[in-house]
Design brief:
By secondary structure, this protein is of the alpha+beta class. The protein has 2 domains: 170 residues, no CATH class; 257 residues, no CATH class. Helices cover 26% and strands 22% of the residues. The chain is built from 6 helices and 18 strands. Strands 5, 6, 7, 9, 12, 13 and 14 form a 7-stranded mixed sheet that branches. Helix 4 packs parallel to helix 5. The longest helix is centred in the first third of the chain and has 68 residues.
Length: 446
Amino acid sequence: MLLNSGYTNKGGTSLHRQSGAILVMFTLGIFAIVAMSALALDGGHMLLSKGRLQNAVDAAALNAAKELQEGATLFEARQAAYSILLQNLSFNENGELNSSVSLSSPDYNSTQVTPRLKIEFSELPDPFNPVLTEGTRYVRVKVEDVSLSNFLADILDFNKVIRASAVAGRSQDLACVNKVLPLLVCGKVGSTAETNYGLADGLHLMKRGANQPSTNGSGNFQLISLDGDSGGGDLRDAFSGNYSPDQCVSKGTVATTLPGNKVGPAAQGMNTRFADWGEAGTNNEDNPRDFNICEGTPVTIEEVQAVDDGGNLMFDDKGKPVMQTAIDPTSIAGAYRWTDYDAANHSETPVACATTDDENAIALRRELEVIVGICDPDAGGTYDVSILGTACFFLTQKVGKTGQDSYIVGEFLKTCSNSGQASLDPDYVGDSSTIVLYWDPDSPDS
């Protein structure tokens, strides 16, 4: 019995010590599991929120840069960045960010727009040196010190705080562009984008109507065949904005004229920008309208004697005056201009024709990029045109639906926002650019 009693005491002591060690290890294991869960859950939440905030800031910077390219003031650019940021953070999935960022009571006259939102401007994207000079092209949007709620991170005494910033602005001028309408505007031989191809400011006749003399040859109405397009359906699609992404137009390339007036397709496609649908299957989803469809007094045309690049009246080989179709200068006073369009688009109380509830509407649909080339008044039918480049015009009014009224009038704007291939030459001067995001050293995720 003594032997049995001693055996029991020794065994009991050993089991007691083992159970204590197991309890400590179990506790440490539970803590490690909870800690790993906290890292996974709160880390994932932090990463997701950071990505959403970065996307919202990217969009805000791009919107502000777009406004700057269109001539907005710093005040207006801050307002544009704020509005798109507020819009994106208002989505349900961004509710936590929206409450944390606190975008109430913005001050558009200050770099610090709200306590957590800062908007700066620079002459260059890199280095980004903040300035307060009107006319700057690059913008940086910062959102800082955004606190997030914790799930399990409190046990690690860890507070989740995120930030995001983005720099945006115009790209290097595009060496070739792929959003081009198949319209030909006649430029001067030897001219370049730097000299605006010899084009004067103001209104231009971008397509003539039936039975009207032309400077680009008999049977031609200033239409161009791009990417093999030839039929009326192709032309309608192009005029409605369904560009070919494979077509990249650049200086020095050659395009082919497209003879014929193409009255129906031209009007059916172009007028979708003015919410004129229904013909040939056009609709507001595939062929969206512009937000602003305002028009002024219609611009009319007249027949005048052509002049050469030196301003001299032109005559043919038989001594007869060379006639061309031009805009009647007495009809332009009431035309709806780009300045009217831009002012209406920035108005807090726009007129009815400058706003819409159509969710498919797109801003700047009336901004057109067209080909500038060397026209040959002595050529007839199909012939090759040497391309000088592309130029931007504002569509002033609807296109008429009858032969003689099917002319297109546009206001020369010099530059457009577009897409294509940017030049690698830092000194290259073109007439188109796009808005891009630049790497921001302050934000590795930018």
